[in-house]
Structure formats: structure tokens, C-alpha cells
Amino acid sequence: MKTILVTGGAGFIGSNFVYYMLEKHPGWRVVCFDALTYAGNLETLEDAMKNEKFRFVKGDITDRKAVFSLFEEERFDFVVNFAAESHVDRSIEAPEIFLRTNILGTQVLLDACRKNNTRFHQVSTDEVYGDLPLDRPDLFFTEETPIHTSSPYSASKASADLLTMAYYRTYGLPVTISRCSNNYGPYHFPEKLIPLMIANALENKPLPVYGEGKNVRDWLYVRDHCKAIDMILENGRPGEVYNIGGHNERTNLEVVRTVLRILGKSEELIKFVKDRPGHDMRYAIDPTKIRNELGWYPETDFDTGIQKTVEWYLNNRSWWKNIISGDYVKYYERMYGKR
Ligand code: NAD
Ligand code: TDX
Hints:
Layout: E1 3-7, H1 12-24, E2 29-34, H2 46-49, E3 54-58, H3 64-73, E4 78-81, H4 88-93, H5 96-116, E5 119-125, H6 152-171, E6 175-180, E7 183-184, H7 193-202, E8 207-210, E9 216-218, E10 220-221, H8 222-235, E11 240-244, E12 249-251, H9 252-263, E13 270-273, H10 288-294, H11 302-315, H12 317-325, H13 327-336
Parallel strand pairs: 1-2, 1-4, 2-3, 4-5, 5-6, 6-11, 7-10, 8-13
Antiparallel strand pairs: 9-12
């Protein structure tokens, strides 16, 4: 039996990972440590709470005392760090909390792992590589692509990656890093492109597309991401970075049109709005390394995944409606003022 600490497990990818691990490794204990910021949602973990192998602890990764006392209570075989401020637009409006959580929080976890010689996995992003031009479809991010960040969010994630590698080199801490492309699927917070478009379309509200909607993202169904992290924990080599992506590139406009088509809604709902400052043009991952070394491949293509995702939002209206009308707006206004 192994015990795994999942930080940020009440958020989108972290919660999907909690469910994936409880199902895949029924003998393992899964401990979730999450501050429940605006993006964390205990409702998401309701089913996990019924599983005796699952424990939820409310806490902040920047709180050294709380993190170290958790490590005294439990012996972890792995720590997987999903906890982060994750939304690029928010980082442009208010960068500070991104630096605090994403960099200093990661450092606290690294220190706790160092003290206990615990294997640490950092969940990073392809945004650390910057972006690719639209007129070079032959280019992809590999693990050797230089770090070249655009937003305060991506700069904070890149800093955490560098710190993680420093702990490997300097202290010999067993670490791995994964850098994945845009995830989508159940429990995705409705501020991000796909869930926001689904929610707005269902409520017949305008769908705000930044700029001309030509920016390209490489979409990865969240369960495929969870599978990749599990494989890295089992067979990944310490000190290595693994890119995760499914070769599912789409322009934002294509994605929005697909959502409207599945829902049977009019394209007249699309509203082109002011572009995001510093907006990255194209992300595209080369997943050769994880495929060749670990045998990972994505199981869900975009057409299947987006259909499943839209259906999930149709069947779970109260989940996202509670968020839209509830505490998250209050939290957002407290942190950043009225929009
Ligand atoms: P999310 O915003 O949905 O969830 C983040 C979770 O972290 C929330 O539950 C929140 O409460 C928790 N959290 C925030 N600050 C915390 C703190 N100080 N202490 C403890 N918990 C805290 O994010 P997500 O989309 O699930 O992303 C998870 C991770 O994956 C992040 O590290 C993100 O950078 C990375 N990532 C996300 C994507 C994507 O497409 N969503 C792609 C690549 C990488
Ligand atoms: O209302 C919108 N309109 C719009 O056109 C929103 C919210 C987004 N967009 C565009 C901006 C991007 O080109 O859609 C694309 C996707 O935007 P987001 O959902 O905000 O994701 P992105 O900025 O690509 O970052 C995501 O992927 C990488 C995650 O939020 C990050 O946490 C992850 O690291």
C-alpha cells in the first residue's frame, strides 16, 4: 500500500486525479491538501469523501507549519503538486498571489519532501515554453525547448520548475516534472474557455472570444493527463521533465463553434472582444519522450472528449450554477475588486 499527497485536489485536474487514483489503485491512501480558494470546491470531492482510503485536509501550501505538521502525521510515498493559481487573465490583473502560491508554496512542499526524502512531482504547463508562430505548423514544444514565458502565471510556473530542478541537483531530491497542454473535461472551473463557453451558451449569454479567435491550443482530455502522471510516478526517471499532449490542436474559434454546434445554439452568440495582453499564439506539444519511455498515449480524441464534456455540463448544471452564483464571485471581488 502507498500513500499519496495530492495538493490542489479540490480543483479541476487535481480532483480528476484523486478519482483516477482511487479507482486505479484501490489499495492506496489518497490525502488531499487544498486551501479551498475560489477555485477549490468540496462538492467536487463528495464521492471521494465516501471512500475510506481518502482524506481531505484544508490547508495552504504556503503555510509551512501546516505542511510540516501534515508530514509528521502521515508518511507519504509521493507528493503530486497541483495546487496553484491557474488562470492567466487573473495573473495579468493581480500577479502577486501567483508568485506566493505557485513559487513559494512549491518551495515549502519541496522543503517538506526534502526533510522526509519523499518523491515529488510538479504539475507544470506547456506555457513555460512561451508560444509558437501560427505559420510554422511543423514546430512543437519538446522538453529541450527553452523556457520563454509570457504571462505572470507562466513565469511563476517556470520559476517553480527551476526550483524543483534545483532541489534535484543540489539536494538529490527525487523529483519529476510534467508539462501538459490545455486540459478539458468534468469539474473544469467556468472561467476557462471551454466551460465558460458551455455555461454562457446554455444561458444564452454572449461568448467572449479574445481578438480574432485564431489562437491555437492543444487540447488534452483530463483523464489522459491523470494517466500520464500515474505512469510518471511509477516509471518516470527522477530529474526528468515529461511533456504531455495529444496532438489535438484547434483554434479558439473552432472550439467555440464546436460547443455551439453540439448544443444546437446559434453562432450569433459569439462576441469578439478585446484581446488578452501578451496573448500566446499557439501551443503544441511533442509527446514523443513520454510515449517512447513510458508507453503513454492519449485515449480520447477531441471530438469524443468535447462531446463527453458538454454532456457532463448538461448533466451537472447545479455544480457550475452554484459556482457562478456563489462564493467564487465574492472571493474574486475580495481579492481583486469588482470586475
Ligand atoms: P484549478 O484552479 O482548477 O485548481 C487549483 C486548486 O489549487 C484549487 O482547488 C485551489 O483551491 C487549490 N489552491 C490554490 N492555492 C492553494 C494554496 N495556496 N494551497 C493549497 N491549495 C491551493 O487549477 P487546475 O486547472 O486544476 O490546474 C492544476 C494544476 O495544473 C496547476 O498547477 C496548473 O498550473 C496546472 N496546469 C493546468 C492546465 C489546465 O489546462 N487547466 C494545463 C497545464 C497545467
Ligand atoms: O473568455 C475567454 N475567451 C477566450 O478567447 C477565455 C477565458 C479564454 N479565451 C482564449 C484565451 C486562450 O487563447 O481561449 C484560450 C484558452 O484560454 P484559457 O482557458 O484561459 O486557458 P490558457 O490561457 O490557454 O491556459 C490554460 O492552459 C494552460 C490553463 O488555464 C493554464 O492553467 C494552463 O497552464
